[in-house]
Design brief:
By secondary structure, this protein is an all-alpha fold. It is built from 16 helices and no strands. It is globular and about 50 Å long.
């Protein structure tokens, strides 16, 4: 590949990744459009329609053999089960936050996710932190304290999203490139299907099912949950294969910024001064972390950077 072709591929990868994060950023608006359906029912249809859409994609792309090969590896199957359970928690809490007026708090969870990832590296992988990383973690911890004490509420939605998403990324690191994006989402949706069926029965016998009672247009919107889940994931996977790791690292903030603006500017969620201070501290921590990452990115050997970049292609999934 010539330098010009390589530059074009990297630019194209950046556009793909930006499109993925942009779609994830506006995903709250899609789920709000599904009202009056509740978060517990939406998760059910998201799991089932994601599985259906992935099955169609596997058929069209003729990649069923890759999925069957994964199923023959017990270790990979176990990791995909764990990943499925983690993404279930993430999806469920994300939807509870959106549909109960906590879009801004949900964005906070994805803002602090890079910091949680660094923390997991210390606790689980026994990695050693640089001084700037310790500083970023300290500032982020102070931000959480400010939000709890000054704002007067425990940000359980944000912390649960960050913890589940960060741990999900750690699990996907263990899986590595052996499981492609579509096969991974297919298996995770498959393992969650029994939970979805039980949850569907519970919702039907308590609050009642909404799907199919609000007209054909609403039913189509709900059925598109599988497409809404898979398309940004495919865009991200395509971008991660082409764009440099530093570009992906910068673009990851597009989604929480868009979610924050959606909650604040479009949905009118409250942002008193105490909350601005808490968010401001988180943003300062992220600036410190990002600058430190950019400074050290150039020192990473090219072959190692390439391995990390390829592995990162499978660590992100739509909220």
């Amino acid at each position: 590949m010539t330098p010009e072709e390589s530059a074009r591929e990297q630019t194209l990868g950046g556009f793909y990744a930006f499109a993925a994060y942009f779609l994830w950023g506006f995903m709250p608006l899609y789920f709000i459009l599904l009202a009056p359906i509740g978060p517990w029912e939406i998760v059910v249809w998201r799991i089932l329609f994601s599985l259906l859409f992935c099955a169609v994609l596997l058929t069209v792309t003729r990649t069923w053999p890759k999925l069957l090969a994964i199923l023959r590896d017990r270790r990979l199957v176990l990791w995909t089960i764990v990943a499925g359970l983690l993404i279930y928690v993430n999806w469920q809490v994300f939807l509870i936050g959106i549909l109960t007026g906590h879009v801004i708090e949900g964005s906070l969870g994805y803002f602090i996710n890079p910091i949680v990832t660094v923390l997991l590296g210390v606790l689980v992988l026994h990695e050693r932190l640089r001084t700037a990383q310790w500083v970023a973690m300290g500032i982020a911890a102070l931000a959480i304290v400010v939000i709890i004490v000054a704002y007067g509420t425990f940000p359980w939605i944000a912390l649960t999203l960050a913890a589940s998403f960060g741990t999900y990324g750690l699990v996907k690191k263990q899986i590595g490139p052996r499981v492609d994006a579509i096969s991974g989402l297919t298996l995770e949706s498959l393992w969650l299907t029994p939970i979805a069926i039980v949850q569907l029965i519970v919702v039907a016998n308590t609050t009642g099912l909404v799907f199919g009672t609000q007209g054909a247009g609403h039913a189509v919107l709900v059925a598109l949950a599988g497409v809404v889940t898979a398309v940004p994931l495919l865009l991200f996977a395509a971008g991660a294969r082409r764009a440099p790791l530093t570009v992906l690292g910068m673009l990851q903030f597009v989604a929480p910024i868009m979610q924050f603006l959606t909650g604040w500017a479009l949905l009118g969620e409250p942002m008193p001064i105490e909350r601005w201070i808490g968010f401001g501290l988180v943003w300062v921590a992220l600036i410190v972390l990002t600058i430190d990452s950019l400074r050290h990115a150039g020192r990473r050997p090219k072959d190692v950077a390439e391995i990390v970049r390829r592995a990162d292609a499978e660590t992100v999934i739509a909220p």
